[in-house]
Amino acid sequence: MMNSFDSKDGFFPDEVIIQILARLPIKSLFRTKCVSKSWYNLISDKYFTNRYNEVSIRNPMVLVEINDPTLNSKPSLIVVDNSKGVSEFSLDFVNDRVKIRSSCNGLLCCSSIPDKGVYYVCNPMTKEYRLLPKTRERPFSRFYPDGEATLVGLACDIYTQTYNVVLAGYHRSFGHRPGRTFTCMVFDSDSNKWRKFVTLQNDNFTHMNRNQAVFVNGALHWLTASCSSVMVLDLGTEIWGKIELPSEVTCEARNIRIYLLECEGRLSVVEISDVWMSIWVMVGGDYRVGEWCMVDRVSLRCIRGMVPGVFPISQTNECVFLATHKQVLVYQRRSRVWMEMYSVKHSSVLPLWFSAHSFRSSVFSCK
Prior knowledge:
By secondary structure, the chain is mainly β. The chain is about 10% helix and about 45% strand. Mean pLDDT is about 80; it is low at about 1-10.
């Protein structure tokens, strides 16, 4: 690692250059590698990679797959950034037709559309991808009820540069009805191997809940279909647990919807009614003593016509991203201003909330 950087404009310590470069878009960052050998070495250093990822993950975005059922083509991908606007890219570099199943710290877990049970991890910004090895266990395609793993989760640690992929579901033996046996497969990027453990579960999950896996505090979290609790998988101990929702949250009332998000490293619950959006975060790192705290209550009257089809996707302490049937909205929490960030023009596309994911740009390697 260099100790200083010398330029025509004067003398700059490495840390100053790092702080500047860490705020560049990834495409611009890669171009700066060509400036000089010293810049190439600095940007390639693991310390810089960690600093870049630390900065970039503080800026959550929304990634949306734009699917047009009338066209037999791959979906296009739109990234909506609160500060930089909208950009478009594709997953063509994966060399397969895939759908996004989970997103975490700049990496995506995708499943093959033509080949069930085939999974990839990729970084759409750096165009790296990794085909996950097949397990020696029975094929994933025997998960119940739709032939796909019921839950798919991706957990990426930006400091160790390692990740886990979790596939879990009710495994159905041929000729038998599905039971309570909940099979969980965990892929470890370091060992390049899968490991398996089995528990008994009774919980079900909606399509939306299955896609909104939240990784915080070394654990993956999913909201159950009943919205009565959060399922937690501790990746260190490989033990399933449950977290009760805030006592004020209920799905029994009409037109109440509950969502599970992350907010700057903390677990968050968002409740949407006809006229209000209420946001809770969990304070305290230990779930046994942690408490839910309401941090915001937002009036939805100015977007009232959209409320039945609005879904929160990503958030920070500064803003909340939401997707509707054809739009991506952002709510600025300090100024209490709503803005439309993106609107799809085609009339036949699937609802945007159906394929919207929280996303963060990073140089996290999936290799």
